[in-house]
Amino acid sequence: MKILLTGASGYIGKRLLPVLVEHGYDVVCCVRDVHRFTPPESLQSRITVIRTDLLDTASLDNIPGDIDGAFYLVHSMATSANYSALEQQSAINFRNALAKTTVQHVVYLSGIVNETVLSTHLASRKTVEDELGRGSYHLTTLRAGIIVGSGSASFEIMRDLVEKLPVMVAPQWLKTRCQPIGIADVITILSKTMLNPSTYDSDFDIGGPDVLSYKEMLLQFGEIRNLKRHIFVVPVMTPKLSSYWLYFVTSTSYRLAVALVNSMKIEVVCRNAEINRILGVEPIGYKAAIKKAFSKIERNEVVSSWKDAFASSGFSFNISEFAEVPSYGCFKDRRESAFADRETCIAKIWRIGGETGWYAGNRLWRMRGFMDKLAGGVGLRRGRTSETTLNAGDALDFWRVLYANKAEGRLVLFAEMKLPGDAWLEFRIAGNKLIQIATFRPLGLGGRLYWYMVMPFHGYIFKGMLRQLTKNGR
Fold first, then answer.
1. pTM for this prediction
2. CATH code of residue 386
3. Distance between CA 445 and CA 441 in Å, rounded?
């Protein structure tokens, strides 16, 4: 059986892929940028990777005609102010492309939409469902509320709030009820639904056994972390103020914060648990899902993170467009130093950022992150998904990994902070030396002035960073 997996490089897709292969499927992975998709070698004999952009109809010709089933796991939330129209057009294009194939079954992961008045986000999901339902195949829609798992947006936002704020003055929507579900159960339900005739031409709400308010979820999260938290709900916080509150306290982007706040005002509780009976699934509770997520984090086994999606920064580009670091019209800070041990040097490079920091001037890095947040950028709060692994497309504080080859000893980062231009940071092993190059392509006079303003800090930061990367020991 051949399965088409859209969103294969996304949070859900990365976790679903190995399960599908384990079930014996041959999987066709649809990705918009093949350069940022790095599946494990153990899966590569059973998968095919194709470039598809649902808004580029020509690219959809790459979909093979002999597929049996397809997962629709893509959405445009927070990548554009007009994401609702983009999502609808993407669904139409996908439906038309599947008309040229032998597909029998499409499974769509959506959001719970059991209220009359929906947020723009949830209404958009329902529109996509309606468009996909007009195809000549069997459609199954699985509607989820809050998904709890290591690296999920919901989990990371709650973690930021609980671990940073002993006292929270929060908006009214914290009283809204929802029915969270663990990521492992989502993956199980998705995989068991595919090509299951009992689920054809139906929609199901999926959730765990607990129905909780957002306030209860935060307090229970604190209990698990042994943190006593106090939450005071006030009626004066408007959706806009609530969005700013989420944006400054958590690692989310402002556009995503707006979409989340608008959705959190609406109750998302499952109508029934019929899908659990059909598939023979018993989802775990909220606290168990939180504990499982932290178990993965402690073992450094986070498979995917929402932060690695371009939606976490508002950027939307192909890595190949920026992977080649330019020279013409650019300012460069180039430094090199001999190292005592190649493996030690590379290991340090691959741990850079996140909890490790930047080896020199960490206070200045944090200050720059704070300034970026004030300017509407991503700041430093995204951190990194894995402590030791980097792949093209990963978020790394306010950088994006463009190229990462440990054997070659080369790492290229692209800045997603607010800048009057474009910036790259490259580390490259050459012989017994580490070459470190910061490149800045200015935009107009403002960009040139910016470079000269920060130049005095470069001598301290970049020189110190190179020294720490090339010395022996930690």
1. 0.80
2. 3.30.530.20
3. 11
